[in-house]
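Sanity check

After download, print the first record. It should look like this:
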Amino acid sequence: MHQQGRLAEAEPIYEDVLRQAPAHFDALHLLGVVAMQSGRAQRGVELIKKAIGINPRVAAAHSNLGRALNELKRPAEALASHNKAITLNPKYADAYNSRGNALADLKRFKEAVSNYDRAIALKPNYALAFYNRGVALMELGHAEDALASYDKAIALSPDSAETHNNRANGLLRLKRPDEALASCDRALALQRDYPEAHNSRGNVLKELQRTSEALACYDKAIALKPDYAEAHINRGNVLTGMKRRGDALESYDKAIALRPEFSEAHTQRGHLLAEFKRIDEALASYSRAIEINPDHELLLGSWLHTKMRVCEWSDFGEQVARLAKKVERSEKAVPPFSFLALSDSLALQRTAAEVLVAAEFPPNNSLPDIAKHQKRNKIRLGYFSADFRDHPVAALAAELFERHDRSRFEVIAFAMGPDTNDDMRKRLKRAFDKFIDIQPQPDCEVALLARNLGIDIAIDLTGFTADSRTKIFAMRAAPIQVNYLGYPGTMGASYIDYLIGDPTVIPESNRKHFTEKIVYLPHTYQANDLKRRIADKTFSRAASGLPPQGCVLCCFNNNHKITPEVFDCWMRILKQVEGSVLWLLEDNATVGRNLRQEAERRGVRGERIVFAERAPHAEHLTRQRLADLFLDTLPYNAHTTASDALWAGVPVLTCMGDAFAGRVAASLLNAIGLPELVTSTLQAYETLAVELATNPAKLGELRRRLAANRLTTPLFDTPLFVRHIEAAYTSMCERYWADLPPDHIQIPR
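Expected structure tokens:
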């Protein structure tokens, strides 16, 4: 009966034997096995231990005790039992398989694979060992080898729904979602009420961007298994992508209620709350995740970036050093964009990008090769952006799109972000020859659309910033693909051919840290808009919270760009400039509280820091004229904010770092003829700031030069800039038409 799986009938017979012979080894042992197979692993352990006490020389008993301990998640004890079984019988295939399971539970996956290999050597048709081997290989990141193991298991046992499901997971890891979907469907054909397969199918459909279908799969998995925490998290992830943030938060909260120690749930909850700008709650979620699993993917970097958004700097240096070590080890520890404000190391920035691309955006060859484009009268440019709205990228580039020479270029917008219907969005819709909202379309469809439209150069204006769509470029939307403006660093991706820069932001000596070939524009890489409006409105010092007298030093960079080292420097400047104040942007109340406390710790009265709320762009430019000097940040400089200050007539003082993001303000100052405002050390930066702030005549002369240079130097000469970037696009195409690979390009003045 036991061998036929009739456990309920076998159990009372074993018990009857034991009533007659309480020390009957086989009855104790096998009754323990029945208990384990019936979901009563602790009872199984008790019975089998009694049996072993009677006869410790039976390998099967030790092996079954190990299996029961595996079920109870006591892998170290299980391993000892399996070791004993193998000592008694070195050719016991089942014991090697079970020992592999114990080692896998202990995260010793390489040893687990060796044990599965030994089990298979002893029993070549051992389907379960092939299956377990596949699971361990997946944990080791060897997806191709895992897939081969699953295929062998399926050949031996074709009706195992579990193996088909895990095969689907392996295929998804290998970015083969169409095949993965077929495996999910096969698993569900074998077992319709299999919640794990519905969850896996949801993951595949999410990858295919069939989000509504994915959500239905997660709902089905949860209906079958209400305590399925992973499905609740996955449901939250797809709802986040659908911008149903309230529903997503409910899903994460449900997962945490089911499994309070689930680091993934706390991490995803943190990401969502940070996106909500509920920073304090996000930090609490990240902190809980770190307590549970400090090595969770992207957790440490996301936590540090979120802390920077509120200028919460406890253990900052120590944590940044820890993060750098993780990146050095090629761990997926930080989103590349977040890392730009945490490290000035070009080598580490490249590693962070390459690690993310390898994990999430590898080259995708699912589409056929692009047919060779022949030279024609007009080059077709495709600008891809999530920021075709009231956003810094649009504020810089709007006039570029308008001024492209339509006799030589056709200009098409691929809008990846929300349709805000604001004034900038309306302006941009008029600026392009075609304006295509691709937000609802899957990446594959967008790549095909760009190909069908004959796009010669696809320009990614988003990079790794919010709402990016890197997978479109991984599939090759165009024969030439370019990283420009939105992300100031390397994408670390082989399919991005060029990055547009200039000699200041990327000196030749730094090229080795970029996977792209560099296109050097002669003055500055940054586009600017001559139509940038300054409001015809009067702002007073009093209305802006500024004192009636004294030097006003400002920095309107996002708060996450302020580091403790830069803030130290600012406080020393305030101490040396009597009556001065520091005027900053306040994105949230926590920032104001934290920075005033930090000032007090450094011996500066908190009221000497004045905060400005966000205002409409044109009004902000007018208001900014109340400032005397803009103080830049490092390692992530002012970019659009530096151009804004210079356009408004406020001199910008910068310290130039090593990385692209830390050299942008220097590029802008060189292009407007004020190179003396570029320093290379924070000491020099501090000294010059004090000199200017205490010498009104010298600062006044700088302001007069800035006013004179504003419309006579290259920075705001948009027609000149457009000619240069068009020359760059033409040079890229000429290389392509001549069958030459991408190479560094220098555009002459």
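If your output differs, re-run the checksum step. Summary of this record's structure: The mean pLDDT is 97.
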